[in-house]
Amino acid sequence: xxxxxxxxxxxxxxxxxxxxxxxxxxxxxxxxxxxxxxxxxxxxxxxxxxxxxxxxxxxxxxxxxxxxxxxxxxxxxxxxx
Length: 81
What we know:
Low-confidence stretches: none
Number of helices: 4
Largest sheet: 2 strands, parallel
Strand order of the largest sheet: 1-2
């Protein structure tokens, strides 16, 4: 079964950041300071990580890739930039 078959409900169930995201962002800040430059998010789904990255870092470019074309459409609609 492909994620395309249930992309909408999958994306809706993942609107909030996962519980460990604050710890991950702090680790990232210690390593990269405030500037991540370019980010490649493999398996990005609906790009749930992007808002947290934007909130915590200066991004020059974010590229998300995923096997599900439908999830990429949702990501593009939610984050047109």
